[in-house]
Amino acid sequence: MVPEAGGAHATLQWGITAVAFVAHLLVAARALTRANRAPASRAAWVAVVMLAPVVGMVAYLLLGETSIGRARFRRVEQALRRMGAAAAAMAPAAPVAVADNAVPLLELARTINGLPAVGGNRVALLGDADSAADAPENDCRRALDALVADIEQARESVHIAFYIWLDDDAGGRVADAVAAAARRGVACRVMVDALGSRAFIDGRRWKQLGQAGVKRLKTLDDINRLQHMAFSRMDLRDHRKIVVIDNRVAYSGSQNCADPEFRVKPACAPWIDLLLRCEGPVVAQVQFLFLSGWIPETGETGLDGYAAAAAHAWHDDGCVAAAFETGPIARHNAMADMFVACIYAARRELVITTPYFVPDESILRAICAAPRRGVRTTLVLPRRNDSWLVGQASRSTYADLLQCGVAVHEYPLGLLHAKSMTIDGQISLVGSANIDRRSLELNFENSLLVADAGVTAAIRRRQEKYLSVSVRVTQEQVEGWSFARRLVQNAVAMMSPVL
After folding, report:
1. Which CA distances in Å does 78 have to 21, 75, 399, 432?
2. CB burial of residue 428 (10 Å; 0-12, 13-18, 19+)
3. Angstrom distance (rounded) from CA 422 to CA 342
4. Active site (catalytic) residues
5. Does the global pTM surpass 0.90?
6. Mean pLDDT of the chain
């Protein structure tokens, strides 16, 4: 009997080993063959799965897929089809004239969501003070002051989407203004990311909004359930920052609804951001982006044509702009394509600010090629990053950038969270998207492309304010880094496709 028991045990072990081996190969094959993945990402995932079989398989099942889930994808697809007619109605009200190198960029933006470039807009960078020496964090405070003032004047609707909303001074004032608007009969809809705003959702302000009659939505609140791991990635996030008031005024940029002190991560404070206030036909596009997230998740009816009903106030002195959003359901590489196109569009000057710089190969090569084409290229990154991994991966690119002639600066006075790109003093790209894999492939992001010298000049002045206190990185400094430091940086960067 003992030999029989031993044989049965050996058979069971063999069976478990065989199943594990087959599962291991299947996960590796999936990582190798999944559509819409860069070769570097495939190689990194296959290496993780093969070198650490159990941990690698679990990591891939949780983090390796970019799907939002089949049911959610169907809801979004159906909502976008219903909203398609409204999007088609958002045509330019009059011919628009822009710089030659802006034309292909605006056309590229149109192909992402079907929203054409529109003229007659007023776009203002919020927070500017009379004194250039004023602290950048005060710009952020004044920007939210303007938002609160507009909400207090709302008469029809207030639509808000934030990745992070904190119950601090600024976040509390915005919440109070929204609650007061709802109590006076304004239709208020608030959409926050379930992870980024989890403390706000669990606190008194979320209840306050509900009691006032505000319609609330926690986006992607089911993505992290383990039973979904075979069909969707557990850490996809809604990173958008959008406000639309009365279908007449829109806000778009990189700023979350929080004080610059950002108390959930105070070690890197203050957080420095950009926020744009828009009036004109582009407001309808920003409204479309909000509703494309709201309608599929809530199923609320009667809103399909609401964006098209926006007040199309045409300003004769206005500018040309296009709003678009990217993410797991958008065309693959849409955000990367836009970054690369903007970089190659530069003929004289290119200035980029971003907090998280982990570019894919196409973006890095485009930036490195810019100085060699005669473009004065400046990159401004934070010296202190709230993500150690991102900081290491960012610095792994410095040697290549400096050798090619890119001026790399580090902002030392907090986390430079502003995501901006200015091109030849004529074109600006501002939004929620970082130059890292999360923004390029995983997160829902919103961006605003503006073809106007006046708007770009305002953003350039803000970029110069950042540069005035930043420290330029030299090639000698980078060459002096120790072997151990470079080893860590490059090892982290090598695994960046799976971060």
Report:
1. 40, 5, 47, 25
2. buried
3. 9
4. 239, 241, 246, 417, 419, 424
5. no
6. 87
